[in-house]
Each structure stands twice: as C-alpha cells, then as structure tokens.
Write a structure and sequence with these properties.
Blueprint lengths: L8 H8 L7 E7 L7 E9 L2 E10 L7 H21 L5 H4 L3 E2 L8 E2 L5 E6 L4 E2 L7 H18 L17 H14 L9 H8 L7 H7 L6 E3 L8 E4 L5 E4 L6 E3 L1 H12 L17 H14 L5 H5 L1 H21 L12 H18 L1 H13 L2
Antiparallel strand pairs: 1-2, 2-3, 3-6, 4-6, 5-6, 7-9, 8-11, 9-10
The structure holds 2-acetamido-2-deoxy-1-O-phosphono-alpha-D-glucopyranose (GN1) and magnesium ion.
The site of 2-acetamido-2-deoxy-1-O-phosphono-alpha-D-glucopyranose has 11 residues, from loops.
Length: 375
C-alpha cells in the first residue's frame, strides 16, 4: 500500500478552496495523531478574523469506498445535531462534527490525483489526549461515548454502510495473522516469536462474542468502533467530553467493542507505543471510573452485554495487538509508522495490556458489577 505524500501549502489552499469556505487562505499544518488518515488544520482570514477548518485526506487504501464513508458521516452528524437541537442544547457546532460541503454540494472532494478529501468545522477550545490524565477524565470519557451510542441508536434504517467489513472480528483478524506468519514476506516472524506464541495460546477465546451475538444474546447496534481516548474532545474549560470525533467506522457493530476499546486506551498507564514495557499496565482506578461513566449512560445494555464488559476489554486489546503484529509481518502497510519497529512496539504494549487485564480479571468483574448496580 503506497503511503500518501504530505500535502504542500499550495495543495492545501487549492483543496480547501474546493469547499464552501470564504475569505483568504492563510496556512495549513498537520494536526492530530491518527494512524490512518492525514489531517490538517487550515486557517482562513475572513474579513480580517481568523477561522479554522479541519481538512482530512481519507486513506482510500483503508477506506476503499470513501463516498460510503462520507454518506454515513453526513447522516450521523446531522442526526446528532438534530437530537441536540431537540434537547434544547446550545453550542451545537462544538458538540458534533459538522461537515463543510464542496462547492458542488458534495460531502467529499475527489481531486485530480485521485485523493479523497473532507472538511469539518474546527472545534475550538477543546483538546484530545493520547494518555488519560485523571479518574475524573476517565469517567467523562465513558459517559461521552455512552451518550454517543445513545444518540445514534435509532440510525438503523437504512443500515449504515459497513465501511470496513468484519472490522473487529477477532477470528478473522487471527486468520490474517496466521496467513502473514505463513508468508513471512519480510523474514520478520523470527523477531516476534514470543508475541505470536502469546496470541496463539489465547486463540480459543477469539470467537466468544461472535458466538453469543449469533445466538442473539448480544445485539447488533450502531457503534463507533474506534473509541480511542483521543477520539473524544474534552472542553478546555469544563473538562467535559463534548464531541466524539473520527466517525469513519461508525457502522453496525457491538457496543462491547466500543467499551473494550475505551478500556484499551483509557486505562493504559502509558502510550500505545511505549517501549519500556514496565510502564505498561491497565489501571483499575481508571477502569472503575470509565465503567462507572459508561454504565451510567448505557442504560440499554442487555444481560449478555453486561456479562462480557470486562472480557471485551481484553478481547479488543488483543485484536488491536494482532493487527499491529500482522502489519509488522506484512511490511508496515496499514498503520502509519514513525520508526522501523513502531508496529512491534505497539503490538507489545497491547499484549502487555492483555496480560495486565488477565491478571486483574476478577477485580474487573467486581468493578463492572458495582458500576452496573449503581445505575
Ligand atoms: C487506527 O486512525 P486511528 O488512529 O484513529 C485504527 C483503529 C485502531 C487504532 C489503533 C480505521 O485508528 O482501528 O484501533 O488505529 N483505525 C482503522 O491506535 O483501522
Ligand atoms: Mg480512526
């Protein structure tokens, strides 16, 4: 998969001007820490006042049908905005992402080079965090994602596009890992033997949620599917989770995958690519706060879902670990990397997090029961 090159100022100006923006382009700079798309903050001067937008190049190697992604996002963001308005809320353009359409009225711009671009209103006065700062923050994050799930719950007809089919299907992700090991195209399997063994030893658990879902015990819902800590914007003044971002993978899924991914990132004591593994473990104080915030908002949970909350944290963390490992073996073609062993480092933190959660599994069950009982 070819890496898409960085855009120049002239390109950013030309692309931005394809959208319904006014005034004079001032500058653009890279923004955020996503592993897939390229994100820029572009600033305009409108009648002398600065105004910023978020411009993103959608990675069309990952999202092979960008128009479908954008159809979903337009529906989701408009739906959330109308819910907020109906509730009498204010500050709507900071509470949900708002797409800026192209001059032709489209939610995405397809440029001459074949790249796909979208533009949002830039949310000012709010920040994202790669690492959790406090238990209070963890609780607000749990609540923000539960609110998000509540707001999109009725977006069922027509079914949203599956922008990446089988996205969190751990069984299929494990099959892809096995295929990559078999191929070993870059002769790297020898470097990650311990990691492969760790994953393989747990393979019999990978189908657990899929089986319960097939039995009807865990329902399909509209879910976010990428509930990393840094995908919720927290207000700089109040600290509250005001806006859930990165909506590429909002599609039918399991609420448990969202909860699990929150735990993967929001209970971690260290960065996703920390190289000193002694710093990497899952913090139970953060887990308790996150579960409390999430359960307070997620009143819809069925018995089957409630029973698997703690397990889902381990499963999703394992799934993402498998994906980093597969990408390393395949030559680093999916996730953006900044150093040669980046995907190995990321895989190792994930597997260390799985181990840490396994060691604290009983405590996690107790915490979940307490959080559910509080509601
Ligand atoms: C990717 O783009 P970003 O950083 O939000 C990935 C997620 C992974 C995550 C790991 C479409 O998310 O699934 O959990 O990296 N997104 C896609 O940090 O594959
Ligand atoms: Mg993402």
């Amino acid at each position: 998969m070819a890496e898409l090159g960085k855009a120049t100022q002239a390109e950013l100006k030309a692309i931005s001007n394809a959208f319904q923006v006014y005034g004079d382009f001032v500058s653009g700079c890279p923004h955020g820490s996503g592993h897939i798309n390229d994100t820029y903050k572009v600033t305009y001067s409108v009648g002398g006042a600065p105004l910023s937008y978020l411009l993103q190049r959608i990675n069309h190697h990952v999202f092979t049908q960008p128009a479908n992604v954008q159809q979903n996002i337009l529906r989701v963001t408009r739906h959330i905005a109308s819910k907020l308005i109906a509730k009498g809320e204010s500050d709507i353009s900071r509470r949900t992402l708002t797409l800026i359409l192209t001059r032709d009225g489209e939610p995405v711009y397809h440029d001459a080079e074949g790249n796909w671009w979208r533009m949002y209103i830039f949310v000012e006065g709010a920040s994202t965090y790669d690492q959790i700062q406090s238990t209070a923050q963890a609780e607000l994050v749990g609540e923000a994602f539960a609110d998000f799930q509540n707001m999109v719950a009725d977006l069922t007809e027509p079914r949203l596009h599956e922008t990446i089919p089988h996205f969190h299907n751990t069984v299929k992700r494990y099959e892809a890992l096995q295929a990559a090991i078999q191929k070993d195209a870059f002769n790297r399997a020898k470097d990650v033997k311990a990691e492969i063994d760790f994953v393989t030893a747990r393979a019999d658990t990978f189908g657990r949620l899929l089986e319960r879902s097939a039995k009807g015990e865990i329902p399909e819902r509209v879910t976010h599917n990428d509930t990393k800590l840094n995908n919720v914007m927290l207000d700089d003044k109040t600290g509250k989770g005001i806006c859930v971002i990165d909506l590429d993978t909002v599609m039918p899924g399991l609420a448990l995958y969202d909860f699990g991914d929150m735990c993967r990132t929001s209970t971690a004591n260290a960065a996703e690519d920390e190289q000193d593994l002694s710093k990497v473990y899952s913090r139970m104080d953060m887990f308790e706060a996150l579960a409390t915030g999430y359960c307070r908002g997620a009143k819809f949970l069925t018995q089957g879902e409630k029973e698997e909350l703690a397990f889902s944290a381990r499963l999703i963390t394992m799934t993402i670990g498998i994906r980093f490992l597969t990408d390393y073996l395949s030559g680093d073609v999916y996730f953006h990397i900044k150093r040669p062993q980046h995907n190995v480092d990321r895989c190792r933190t994930q597997l260390k997090m799985v181990k840490s959660m396994e060691d604290q599994a009983e405590q996690m069950e107790v915490i979940v029961r307490k959080a559910l009982a509080a509601e």
